[in-house]
Design brief:
The chain is mainly beta. It has helices spanning about 5-10, 45-50, 130, and strands spanning about 25-30, 35-40, 60-70, 75, 85-90, 95-100, 110-115, 120-125, 140. The strands form two sheets. Strands 6-5-8-3-2-1-9 form a seven-stranded mixed β-sheet. About 30% of the residues are buried.
Length: about 150
């Protein structure tokens, strides 16, 4: 195992399935479903995302919070599980979906861009967007106030 991968695994609590012990979490709602999400608030957290996880529970995910709305694009490098990527604007309205993004097996990894400016990106286990029937304009509900992006 490469040294940086070992360090990353250890920094994530030694378990590739578990959230980082230092991760902030909150609960979000979408189409009547509740999800516990880790928050990615700064560049390092947004870059790491859900890398090295071997699973994502059906009721868990990650919410990426950006300082400003703009075109967003994600990739699946070092991400081992398929994901749905849901892009939301400043008002937390769904503007774009990249469903069933597959792990990247070799460089260059494909990009999964938003189709409109987005400030929030919700990553969930692949198939969730279809299962709950997301539609453009759906509003992401957030329990409490979100910390500011850094």
């Amino acid at each position: 195992m490469k040294a940086w991968m070992l360090l990353l695994a250890l920094s994530m609590g030694g378990c590739a399935n578990a959230p980082s012990p230092l991760a902030q979490t909150t609960t979000v709602g979408l189409r009547g479903q509740r999800f516990t999400v880790e928050l990615a608030l700064d560049d390092a957290q947004r870059q790491r995302g859900l890398m090295m996880r071997t699973s994502v529970a059906a009721d868990h995910g990650m919410l990426f919070v950006f300082p400003h709305a703009g075109p967003q694009a994600f990739w699946m490098k070092n991400t081992w599980v398929p994901l749905d990527m849901l892009y939301f604007d400043e008002a937390r309205r769904l503007v774009s979906v990249q469903a069933d993004a597959q792990p990247c097996k070799a460089d260059p990894c494909p990009l999964y861009p938003s189709e409109a400016p987005a400030r929030y990106v919700l990553e969930l286990a692949a198939g969730t967007a279809h299962r709950i029937g997301v539609q453009a304009g759906d509003v992401l509900e957030v329990e409490g106030a979100l910390p500011a992006a850094r």
